[in-house]
Write a structure and sequence with these properties.
heterodimer, A: mainly alpha, 68% helix, B: alpha+beta, 13-stranded mixed sheet, three-stranded mixed sheet, 8 helices
Chain lengths: 183, 348
């Protein structure tokens, strides 16, 4: 948790209903949660709506934050449930849109660099999308959401050993998919 | 199957790259790399893959601050809502919020119109006919108060009694009560708050059963040939041509042709009366039964596409302000998926 100086204190303040603390929490986690939800829904605007609901629900449940379930696991658990409900609701299998407008570039990349960066981004995204869905969730939680294996296990209701297996499986697939970038 | 050790090392390396390893584990990694070229290659390969995937720009092209503004707006609204509950002055009477204004007002007007008309006729006849008027046999006519799904009605009688009619119900009552008794007919569900008049008992007729009271508060539910009476104040006598059953405060009595009269003493009546306070309360209620209550309450149609879900038991107390909220809570509690499109609710 590099950007949040003291996570425990922050959670404590949220528990007491401190909106400023919640804001800090939101600003830190929202992009990560958004990407996590997007991995399920592959729908940008839906992901934004779901993310909003997720944070509101987390806020509603703030008093129930306890040591049983880590706050991060709780947050991602809500996100996962909502995402799955969304998929069911829309009778969508986890299909991936070709016209993926998801990834945009930061302005400071030059045109040429932008092109390379764009391609790399696309390729990584495609590779991640090739992972089986469970495996993808585990990898995304680990790589982009900085959850520990124990937290991932809690979030997805699986054992730590299963988390390890998924990670190892994900790395094998990604290594093949991204071989052109690797030595 | 991969050997367990492979998995173990991968895990160790990943945790090392995440910065989640202990110093002792770092030593193990260092040893592995130094002692074996293949391990070293494995480590380098995972490391470069890790770094490569780390270059992914995963942030959506969305405005974080706008998103926060939206959330904070909702939080502010909720904050106002809760403070409203704290102020007793602003407390709504439970029914005002739900009543369909027009039918309610309409009934009052009709009532007033009938009274006015009666009074006018009386005054006219009185002033023009000098002879004393015969005790005119005023004709009794009956009103039907009908609530459809999602509607509620409050009916005030001239004697000071009040009836709260739940959704999907019908109450038939006279334009005025006769001198010896007060009688109404009910199909559906209603809560009665009856003014005490010792020599003028109040009777609620439900099918073959007459529920008689002197002055009391009670809830009568008569749906699908099953009668359920809950007494919150005073006492109620349920009777048919053969038998009778007396219910006192706190009792819950029922009657059906099959099972006859039953009295459940010290029943938990709160969940049977929840509807009156705009609440929905379920106690080990099957989802199919709970949903039929929701259908009535919110005027929706529920379809089950998940047969297994029908008989799941639901226990809970819901604020029935918004159906979306109630459904969402049920969804979470029951681990099912509910979709609402307009007036249609589908359970998966």
């Amino acid at each position: 948790m590099s950007n949040i100086a003291n996570f425990e204190v922050l959670i404590g303040r949220i528990k007491e209903g401190d909106v400023n603390a919640f804001k800090e929490f939101f600003l830190f986690f929202q992009p990560k949660i958004l990407y996590f939800i997007y991995c399920y829904t592959h729908d940008k605007s839906a992901a934004e709506d779901i993310a909003q609901d997720v944070f509101l629900e987390f806020w509603k449940m703030r008093q129930e934050l306890n040591c049983k379930l880590s706050p991060k696991s709780l947050l991602y658990k809500i996100a996962r449930n909502r995402s799955i409900n969304f998929i069911k609701r829309n009778h969508k299998a986890e299909t991936i849109k070709d016209d993926d407008d998801f990834f945009r570039l930061n302005e400071y990349y030059g045109i040429e660099q932008k092109f390379d960066y764009d391609r790399l981004n696309d390729d990584i995204t495609k590779a991640i999308n090739k992972l089986p869905s469970r495996c993808r969730s585990v990898f995304v939680l680990s790589r982009y959401n900085e959850l520990s294996y124990a937290e991932i296990a809690e979030t997805l209701d699986i054992s730590i050993q299963t988390v390890k297996n998924h990670i190892s499986n994900a790395l094998n697939i990604l290594r093949q998919e991204l071989s052109s970038y690797l030595k | 199957m991969k050997p367990q050790s492979d998995n173990f090392e991968t895990d160790l390396i990943v945790r090392y790259l995440q910065g989640n390893t202990l110093p002792a584990e770092n030593n193990i990694i260092r040893e592995l790399i130094e002692n074996s070229d293949s391990k070293k290659n494995e480590f380098e390969s995972i490391k470069s893959l890790w770094e490569l995937t780390g270059k992914l720009n995963y942030s959506l092209d969305s405005n974080l601050w706008d998103s926060w503004e939206k959330i904070s707006e909702i939080l502010n609204k909720e904050f106002e809502k809760t403070s409203e509950h704290i102020l007793p002055i602003r407390k709504k009477t439970p029914f005002n919020s739900r009543i369909e204004r027009s039918p309610f007002v309409m009934w009052i007007y009709r009532f007033a119109a009938v009274l006015l008309l009666g009074l006018t006729i009386y005054l006219l006849t009185d002033s023009y006919k000098k002879e004393p008027i015969l005790e005119q046999e005023q004709e009794i006519s009956f009103y039907e108060a009908i609530t459809r799904k999602g509607e509620r009605l409050t009916i005030k009688f001239t004697d000071g009694s009040t009836v709260y009619l739940n959704a999907g119900s019908k109450l038939i009552y006279p334009n005025f009560f006769e001198s010896s008794s007060r009688e109404v007919k009910l199909v559906g569900e209603a809560y009665f708050d009856i003014k005490s008049l010792p020599d003028k008992p109040f009777r609620v007729i439900t099918g073959s059963i007459v529920n008689e009271v002197k002055g009391t508060e009670f809830n009568v539910k008569f749906r699908k040939e099953i009668l359920e009476v809950v007494v919150t104040e005073g006492s109620v006598i349920m009777k048919n041509h053969k038998e009778s059953l007396t219910l006192n405060k706190g009792d819950f009595g029922s009657f059906s042709e099959k099972e006859g009269f039953k009295n459940f003493k010290n029943a938990d009546i709160s969940h049977l009366l929840a509807w009156k306070n705009n609440k929905l309360s379920f106690k080990k209620t099957s989802l199919i039964e709970a949903m039929s209550q929701l259908e009535l309450y919110f005027n929706v149609n529920v379809t089950f596409k998940n047969d297994h879900a029908r008989y799941k038991k639901l226990t809970g107390y819901f604020d029935a302000e918004s159906i979306d909220e109630v459904l969402e809570n049920i969804e979470l509690a029951m681990d099912i998926s509910i979709i609402k499109e307009g007036r249609n609710v589908i359970i998966y």
